Amino acid sequence: MRALITGGAGFVGSHLAEALLQKGHHVFVLDDLSTGKIDNIEHLKSHDRFGYLIGSVLDETVLAELVEQCDVVFHLAAVVGVKLIIDEPVRTIETNVHGTEVVLRCAARHRRPVLIVSTSEVYGKGIQVPFREGSDLVLGATTQHRWAYACSKAIDEFLGLAYWKEKRVPVIITRLFNTVGPRQRGRYGMVIPNFVRQALSGGPITVFGDGRQTRCFGYVGDVVQALIGLATDPRAVGEVFNVGNDEEISIETLAKKIKLLTNSQAEIVKIPYHEAYEPGFEDMFRRVPDIRKVKELLNWRPEVGTDELLTKIIEYTRQSQSR
Ligand code: UDP
């Protein structure tokens, strides 16, 4: 199979590329390096089944050609990271919505299957935990930029499902819950790379809010296996799937765990949300996926638990800091 990965030099995209190559597929990456890094795919460049182009998904001429040459599109190119989204809301909305529009238009021309990588952010402030694919989406006011991201990804989902319904483009929607692993950067606000870096550099470890909010962290290696399984299973077409791990942990416990695992003397400090993000910032109190749908379809399950993934990330960060 020849796979095109938009956003393939990003954190998840580069792991997906690696996993597809390992399975014997051909991989072509398109990335504008806005948040992706060429370093992420450096080790793949010499592979004879790998190719890449630095360019934007918004460039329809380029994309049309790449889509024609592939058998399946993994659409990951998007603006990600809560911090970046708040700082650059125009770029967030335009890239996310217009990028998906271009990908789907090109896919429709050649009837190529598209797996759209969406996000658990679309559930917003939903209170029916765990989140099921059919749950209501509960978003906040338009004056809070965080919700622009959720809304832009929800539009991507609507558009993808509309292309399936109206034009029979095989589209699969995946909602990724907090995905973590080596190569993820804390620069855009993600909590685990931040805490690990802070713990290793002597701190302080910055817990936003009161730390009682919870998340479930999925290991990127597990997540990309589910993405490949879904993209290649005809039963997944026209459907939405949560992808992640359902092991729940509070952010304060996470900070303590990382401090312990790194043997760090760093102090854990609490920072109010309005200082960490912007006035009026709204966080999700609990975010837990119901992953029964993907598990049952693919006979897939997350194999790496929270403790193991933290150990892997700490080890990776230590090694990259000593390089
Ligand atoms: N967070 C934190 N300290 C940090 C970065 C994030 O306490 O340095 C919190 C953040 O407020 C949220 C959780 O950790 O409650 C997860 O944040 P992240 O940005 O990784 O992902 P989100 O789930 O918000 O998309």
Outline the secondary-structure elements.
Elements: E1 2-6, H1 11-22, E2 26-31, H2 39-42, E3 50-54, H3 60-68, E4 72-75, H4 82-87, H5 89-110, E5 114-119, H6 146-167, E6 171-176, E7 179-180, H7 191-200, E8 205-208, E9 214-216, E10 218-219, H8 220-231, E11 240-243, E12 248-250, H9 251-262, E13 268-271, H10 273-276, H11 292-298, H12 306-322
Helix pairs in contact: 1-8, 3-5, 5-6, 7-9, 7-12, 9-12
The structure holds uridine-5'-diphosphate.
Number of domains: 1
| Shape type | globular
| Overall mean confidence score, pLDDT | 95
- Helix/strand order, N-terminal first: EHEHEHEHHEHEEHEEEHEEHEHHH
H/I helix tally: 12
Work out the helicity level: 40-55%
Looking across the biggest beta sheet, what order are the strands in? 3-2-1-4-5-6-11
Radius of gyration over C-alpha positions, nearest whole angstrom: 19 Å
The number of strands is 13
Note the main sheet: 7 strands, parallel
Residue runs with pLDDT of under 50 for 5 or more positions: none
CATH superfamily: NAD(P)-binding Rossmann-like Domain
CATH-level-2 architecture: 3-Layer(aba) Sandwich
What structural class should be given to the helix and strand makeup?
A: alpha/beta
Proportion of residues in β-strands: 15-25%
- Between the first and last Cα atoms, what is the distance in angstroms? 36 Å
Oligomer category: single chain
Ions and ligands = uridine-5'-diphosphate
Write down the CATH topology.
Rossmann fold
